[in-house]
Amino acid sequence: MVVNAAAVSEPTAETADAVLDRWQRDPLALVQILRETQAATYWLPRSLLVHIAAALGLTVAHVEGVAGFYRFFHTSPVGCVRLLFSDNITDRMLGSEALLAQLCARLGVAPGEVDAQGRFSVDRCSCTGLCDQGPALLVNHHQVVTRLDGARVDALADCLLAGTPVEEWPDEWFRVVDGVQRADLLLTGLAADASSLPAVLARSPQALLDEVAQSGLRGRGGAGFPTERKWQACRDAPGPLRCVVCNADEGEPGTFKDRVLLASHADSVFDGMTVAARAVGAQQGFVYLRGEYRFLLPQLEQVLARRRVAGLLGRNAAGIAGFDFDIAIHLGAGAYVCGEESALIESLEGKRGTPRIRPPFPVQAGYLGRPTVVNNVETFCAVAHIARRGGAWWAGIGTAQSTGTKIHSVSGDCARPGLYEYPLGTTIAQILDECGAPQAQAVQVGGPSGACIPASEFGRAIAFEDVPSAGAFMVFDRSRDLFEVARHFARFFAHESCGLCTPCRVGTELVVRRLDKLAHARGAGHASAFDIERLHDLDTVLHSGTHCGLGASACNPLRDTMRHFGAAYAQRSTAAQFQPDIDLDAELSSARRVTRRTDAGAHLHTDTPT
Amino acid sequence: MNAPPIPEAPRKLRVATVSLGGCFGCHMSLLDIDERLLELIEKVDFDRSPLTDIKTVGECDVGLIEGGLCNAENVEVLRAFRAHCRVLVAVGACAITGGLPALRNHLDVGDMLQSVYGEVPDDPELPLPLNRVLPIHEVVHIDHALPGCPPPADAFWQLLQDLIAGRTPVQAPGLIRYD
Amino acid sequence: MSAVDPSFELDGQRVPLQPGDTILAAAARAGLDIPYLCWSAEVSASASCRLCTVLADGRPVAACVTPAVAGQKVECRSASLDVQRLRLLQMLFVEGNHFCPGCEKSGNCVLQVQAERAGMTDLHFETLNPERPVDASHPDVLFEPNRCILCQLCVRASDEIDDKQVFAIGGHGIATRLLIDSPSGRLGDSALSVGDRAAHICPVGALLPKRVGFAVPIGQRRFDTEDTRG
Fold first, then answer.
1. Could you say which of A578, A584, A591 has the minimum Cβ distance to residue B109?
2. Could you tell me the strand order of the sheet in which A372-376 lies?
């Protein structure tokens, strides 16, 4: 489509200009500017991108590249109301696909399409972090509707067809609960008599670092890097300016603990960030809030405003002369890979969320080249406790190598989904027992990029030295087909690949196609041992050198399920010889159309006759 | 029935060849082994092949497939080769990638037929073209491939020597080329 | 050079290193070949193709961006890395629409020569058959996206050498593509000129100066050897 700059309509340009002015035409704010503009214009026509590029002094190609990277930016028309069904496997297990079909039927649209009058569009998105109260959907990349069922979908269709504004939809639909089932120290929160932040920060930065070192705290985002070493490296890196970033891009499907910490323990999180800033000497703080958690933004901004009034942020923060530190919230726009810390920093700088080449690591050169600490929400929350109660106290909880507690987002086939906080070292069996999952055949620990643990290994403990976890705990009972689980996760990784490196960009797509063939979902031939061999091949390539962890872990579900649930693959690959992946008869459709032939010679069988 | 087996001369390798959506250039390159053809026919019998004019493929040790899959007949012939040949070899760029005929893949073949012929013949004798030209490994399992447009004569020679000797064919580095 | 000069070991051979060296740079200086597609000494690295993946003390890394470390053991030529390179090349071939016999770049193409050297005889995977319209709008340079391997060399050359930023990367996942900075998105409306480095740095036949194709006869092209085209 060729649209020139002059074609941008006046109101659209005015909308963009207002947003641009609010961000002082700062090119670093490009992602925020696109997000806020689109909130008013529904989608981002090329003419609008041209306009924004000119205003920011960026090339159109750069802006188009950024707009095309994030799943929540639309560069083709969408409806005035955009509904995105959360498409985690747990949503599907709760019937999300049938509900999506029901809604589409009522509205007369197909998934991914806009209705003829441009009123609404319905599609899927990656996990929205509401697995314990799903199926869920996202409205206009802003609100979330939880606990969908047939009746709620019907009522939703009524509202959409009647043109009822979102603000007038029943409050109950938007209700998001914390769902804490087992609280330990983090989910209980700071004691009423806990020392104040100024009292904590009165200690020297080195004393704060020592406390964290003594605690043995390791990052809660998945990689488990020792927090103190990260901080020390940042503190030691040369440069006058430093940053502290809270990674609230909780994109790992099946993980929703950070949502609750941000909703109910935001002060602890901000305390932790401020302690980190004091320890490393940072001036600038960011919360990178995933776009799916947009609904949390107003209350988080309120907490920050209150803290500024209380003197905990800003110049001479917490009453410490010369300690100037404030926190800004940056919203993501639907890109799982931005949970990788260097991709997150690229996104903070308004660019495509492509993981950087390391070294240099963010602690050496992060946001705008400044030494930057990026830690998970839960890590900062832990710091708030450690800074008050001491590293030795924290180190006394959990195991020697895995200190403290860990919050598990439990979902799937269990009686009581929700958050469960345990000391590290707790067995999978114990968590299954307490959440009520006697029929479990497998648990996906740590999300798709983690590990699929079969029942025979439920005695294993969640700890860095045994089964590490970024916080997801998805339970699959004996009625579930682990092949379909792996296929779902494969689609997720292919959808979320940033496209930079060959093995991830091409490999994730080839895995999806091969698994679709096994599922007989491509309207084509049957799979054979040949296809299993190709899957092993792809698994090897993706585990042998991708640019970042997304690609490296993209085949984990495939590898684990092939190993533990091989029968699910064997029963789908029973053809005696190689069979094509192509519907050969359909390949004759165009010639049949123009010849109008119907004779036997005008058709082909897809499977090779044996 | 119980008589001892009669000693036979070493059995010759039975080879079939075909050009599907190809230009016969690969076959020409095979003939470029020149005087080594005389040595070859001491060890090889040709079954279906443009060299013999045998029309249907019999039980063979080796099938050499030139060309990609352009139409329904190509698919049927390829399947017949797969069913009758112990070892199937994709020969040349078109068999391996679809080749130059696959450049039409982004166009609608029905529209092309209409614009070329106006009234498109509906004779059942004529094979219908596929929407896309396909490489042969997407329809049947292929055991080996000889790349090149065409593969060098020496590559054919080496492949057949390996197969005659019962070795897994390996191509010398200089013999692997794509144009 | 004394025995105490810093060095690392590449496939058993000692490679001297200088401060700031990547594994690839140090190996290249020592005359040792680590295969790559997306790297160029002229521009910053993208580390996208991953063909230069080596095992540094057992860990897979991209040699083009990984600092060489004294005393390290680096493995490049091994059975498993040979297969890894072969698979990466096959992935690139099935991702685009690569038809060497009709391509002007044949004989001068880095993708082609790396695949030939890696012993690639087939595609191994199914072709993805992407739909990528050719852009011939520029008077002097052809953009043939069917052959693009997303190496980013043109993106970086235009930005870092030509100071123009004519190219950018768009989309994500398998739909990642090269974008052109112009009002229409077409090359003919961009600031690219045939004298730009970006117009010549493409390792494959995706960006080609016009009217020079097939000018050099087979046998005399960049990668022709006695062996292959004697």
1. A591
2. A326-331, A284-289, A243-248, A372-376
A74 within some domain: no
Strand partners, C170: C177
From A262, A242, A229, select the one nearest A324 (Cα to Cα). Answer: A242
The Cα B70–Cα B68 span in angstroms is: 6
Q: Which residues contact A531 (CB under 8 A, 6 or more apart)?
A: A514, A517, A518, A573
Domain C7-77 maps to which CATH number in 3.40.50.620, 2.30.30.100, 3.10.20.740, 1.10.10.10? 3.10.20.740
Is residue B131 less than 8 Å (CB to CB) from chain A?
A: yes
Based on the domain organization, do A331 and A301 belong to the same domain?
A: yes
Residue A189 placed within a domain:
yes
Q: A129's torsion region: left (phi>0), alpha (psi -120 to 50) or beta?
A: left
Task: For residue C81, give the chain A residue with the closest CA.
Answer: A544
pLDDT digits (tens, 9 = 90+) for A292-351: 999 999 999 999 999 999 999 999 999 999 999 999 999 999 999 999 999 999 999 999
Domain ranges of chain B: 13-172
CATH number at residue A600: 1.20.1440.230
CATH number of B13-172: 3.40.50.700
Q: Which residue, chain included where needed, has tokens 């600490």?
A: A373
Neighbours of chain A (3+ CB pairs under 8 A): B, C
What is the DSSP annotation of A313-353? SBTTGGG-TT--BEEEEEE--S-GGGGSHHHHHHHHTTS--
pLDDT digits (tens, 9 = 90+) for C55-111: 999 999 999 999 999 999 999 999 999 999 999 999 999 999 999 999 999 999 999
Q: Is residue A3 over pLDDT 70?
A: no
Bridge partners of C62, per DSSP, are: C53
Structural domain includes residue A585: yes
> What are the residue ranges of helices labelled H in B32-152?
36-43, 72-84, 93-97, 109-117
What are the helix and strand counts (H, E) for chain A?
25, 16
Cβ proximity of A86 and A93 under 8 Å: no
CA distance B32 to B156: 9
DSSP string, A161-218: HHT--GGGS-GGGG-----EEE--HHHH-S-TTPPPHHHHHTS-HHHHHHHHHHHT-B
User: According to the model, what pLDDT value does residue C222 have?
Assistant: 93
Topology of the domain comprising C86-229: Alpha-Beta Plaits (3.30.70)
Given A582, A587, A597, which is nearest B122 (Cβ)? A597
Give me the domain span that covers residue A569: 481-610
CB B137 within 8 A of CB A530: no
**ipTM value > 0.95:** yes
| DSSP code at position B121 | -
pTM more than 0.90: yes
Do β-strands A81-86 and A120-125 pair in parallel, antiparallel, or remain unpaired?
parallel
The owner of tokens 């890395």 is: C81
Q: Do A547 and C62 touch (CB under 8 A)?
A: yes
Distance CA B30, CA B24 (A): 10
Q: Are residues A423 and A505 in the same domain?
A: no
3-state secondary structure of B86: strand
Largest CA distance in chain A: 89
**Packing angle of the helix pair A556-564, A529-542 (nearest 10 deg):** 140
Residues of chain C neighbouring B177 (CB-CB closer than 8 A)? 116, 228-229
Residue range A218-241, pLDDT digits in tens: 999 988 999 999 999 999 999 999
B70 touches chain A (CB under 8 A): no
Asked if B127 and A601 touch (Cβ cutoff 8 Å), the reply is: yes
Collect all residues of chain B within an 8 Å Cβ-Cβ radius of residue C228.
Answer: 174-175, 177
Nearest to A588 among B111, B120, B130 (CB): B130
